[in-house]
Amino acid sequence: MAKASRLGQAGRDLSDGTEAGSGVPRPRPPRAGAGGRWWVGVGRAVLWAFIVVVLVNGVWFPLRGGFALPSAAEEPESTDTVTYPETASAAFALRFAEVYLNTEDPEARRAELAAFVPEGEATALDAAADSLTGENLTVVAVDVLDDNNAVVVVRADVNGEPMRLDVPVYADQDALVVSGRPALLAAPSQATLPPGASFETDPDAAEQLGEVLPGFFEAYAGEPEFLERFLERGAAVTPLPANTLEFVELSDLTVPSQTSTGDDDVRQVAATVRWNVSASDGGEAGQLVQDYLVTVVNSGDEWHVRDIQGAPRSFGG
Fold first, then answer.
1. Is residue 20 included in any domain, yes or no?
2. What are the strands, taking DSSP E only, across the chain?
3. Of 253, 244, 257, which Cα lies nearest the Cα of 291?
4. Which of 81, 88, 130, 85 is nearest to 109 (CA)?
5. I need a labelling partner for 234 at 20 to 30 A (CA). Which of 99, 294, 300, 312 fits?
6. What is the C-alpha to C-alpha distance for residues 263 and 260, in angstroms, rounded to an integer?
């Protein structure tokens, strides 16, 4: 019976997790994740992933950048805009036209033309003696075709008639050459001026300005020391050179009722002035009629001049 009791006690001890007869707990098998080993595994995985990313980036990005570099034969695109030298080609074509339209001496003409055309092409421009004359030459347009080519339009009186000479000019930076035979064409036709726009006038302001502007024009032409008296404060008007014109009269004056801005204190008036002009040889003076556009300002009790310029249009009113 005693033996049975001891075995029963030992069984209880084992069920309590202790070694039989020793009182020391019996070791248990570790549970999954016990002791933080699971987190250690996760940390190692993250560390290796980081190392792989660093290695890939450190090796691949420089290689990829190297693949994108242009080869030695490739040139970077230029952002500079090349423009045709209009001013230089206009002067060049004008000098060419002066020679081309002078056929008085064909041999001398051919020699001079050689400086404007490709080598060996001067004979292609031959013309009979005294067949062409050109006067009053001026460049009126440069028709640019591309960065290297243009046609320069020269207006001239050819054999006494108004015509145009189209001169093709090739440009290679600063180098110029006539690239083909020029062509004579009819001069541009004369434009028909349409009727001027109608507007309301201000007779009261015209009467007041009719007393002010004659004194202004006298000072403008011959008495600059009195000019400031007629100017708006702060305005600057350069007088005419001394002894060039002499004021005779203000023959016409048109004053609009208001400006385009609706400011009644500022007007642009059309003034027709008759001048005396001294003869170059000291003889009797002649007369000259001219049209002006005068900007005037009403300071409250009188008008003052702010600016003077040529009238943009006085015919066809």
1. no
2. 134-144, 149-158, 161-172, 175-178, 183-186, 245-254, 266-277, 286-298, 303-310
3. 253
4. 130
5. 312
6. 8
**Residues 90 and 167 placed together within one structural domain of the fold:** yes
CA-to-CA distance for 273 and 270, rounded, in angstroms?
10
Instruction: Give dist(CA 255, CA 251) in Å, integer.
Output: 14
* Residue 200 near residue 175 (C-beta atoms within 8 A): no
Where residue 303 sits, what CATH number does that domain have?
3.10.450.540
Q: Is the dihedral of CA 52, 56, 58, 59 positive or negative?
A: positive
pLDDT tens for the chain, 317 residues long, are 444 444 444 444 444 444 444 455 555 555 554 555 656 666 676 667 667 665 555 555 544 444 444 444 455 555 556 589 999 999 999 999 999 999 999 999 999 999 999 999 999 999 999 999 999 999 999 999 999 999 999 999 999 999 999 999 999 988 999 999 999 999 988 888 888 777 888 999 999 999 999 999 999 998 888 999 999 999 999 999 988 899 999 999 999 986 656 667 899 999 999 999 977 766 667 899 999 999 999 988 899 999 999 998 878 65
Distance between CA 79 and CA 76 in Å, rounded?
A: 9
Kindly give the residue spans of alpha helices, DSSP state H, lying in the chain: 2-15, 37-68, 86-100, 106-113, 203-221
